[in-house]
């Protein structure tokens, strides 16, 4: 089974498991073995799935401002965890390809494997929710048809993205692409880098 087939299967299992309770406070119950790639992928998508629904909640026009602020901070924390896990997945790929010597003419890709996997995880969520809308009986036929058209496009994007990821991994394994990892250097959560936070500290 190709890597992307495994990832897509795991992502969809995570999404289905989340929607058993459909509650952002549900604790993850990762079914895969410790240190396995599947366990890492499941954890990655679980973060994405919870954040997807947090983003839905915060867009409620009638939400209490204090609750919205708390949700925003929860989303910020989730984003940091998401970034950390993506970089961890890239470390997994670095270890996998550590004995590969890139060819002298090897190219550098603009996107690391794990950030492409991140997009695949989000795409799995888009496909899941667009499919729900395309089949929602309470919606109008026009709405369902529009969503089916969008779903068709998303499924084409899925085929293109999985093909691209598989090609990238093959190119790295064959030495045609150099495996490099770029840290995201998130600044907004860092009290020494976010001017709003460090200026507040200087005023005390």
Radius of gyration: 20 Å
* Major sheet characteristics: 2 strands, parallel
Give the overall form.
globular
The mean pLDDT is 91
Fraction of residues in β-strands: under 5%
Question: What is the first-to-last residue Cα distance?
Answer: 58 Å
What is the percent of helical residues? 55-70%
Domain module tally: 1
Protein name: DUF4254 domain-containing protein
Pfam families: DUF4254 (PF14063)
Organism: Chryseobacterium jejuense
InterPro entries: DUF4254 (IPR025350)
Report a brief summary of the structure.
By secondary structure, the chain is mostly helical. The protein is built from 6 helices and 2 strands. A two-stranded parallel sheet has the order 1-2.
Topology summary:
Layout (H helix, E strand, L loop, with lengths): L2 H19 L15 H22 L6 H32 L10 E2 L4 H22 L6 H33 L3 E2 L16 H9 L1
Parallel strand pairs: 1-2
């Amino acid at each position: 089974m190709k890597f992307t087939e495994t990832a897509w299967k795991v992502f969809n299992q995570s999404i289905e498991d989340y929607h058993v309770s459909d509650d952002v406070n549900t604790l993850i119950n990762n079914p895969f073995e410790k240190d396995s790639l599947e366990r890492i992928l499941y954890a990655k998508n679980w973060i994405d799935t919870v954040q997807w629904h947090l983003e839905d909640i915060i867009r409620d026009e009638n939400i209490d401002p204090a609750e919205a602020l708390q949700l925003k901070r929860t989303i910020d924390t989730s984003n940091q965890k998401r970034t950390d896990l993506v970089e961890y997945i890239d470390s997994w790929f670095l270890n996998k390809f550590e004995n590969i010597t890139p060819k002298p003419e090897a190219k550098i890709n603009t996107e690391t494997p794990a950030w492409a996997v991140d997009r695949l995880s989000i795409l799995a969520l888009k496909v899941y929710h667009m499919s729900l809308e395309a089949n929602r009986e309470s919606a109008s036929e026009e709405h369902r048809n529009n969503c089916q058209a969008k779903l068709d496009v998303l499924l084409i994007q899925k085929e293109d993205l999985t093909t691209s990821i598989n090609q990238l991994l093959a190119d790295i394994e064959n030495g045609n692409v150099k495996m490099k990892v770029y840290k995201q250097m998130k600044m907004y959560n860092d009290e020494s880098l976010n001017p709003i936070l460090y200026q507040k500290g200087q005023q005390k």
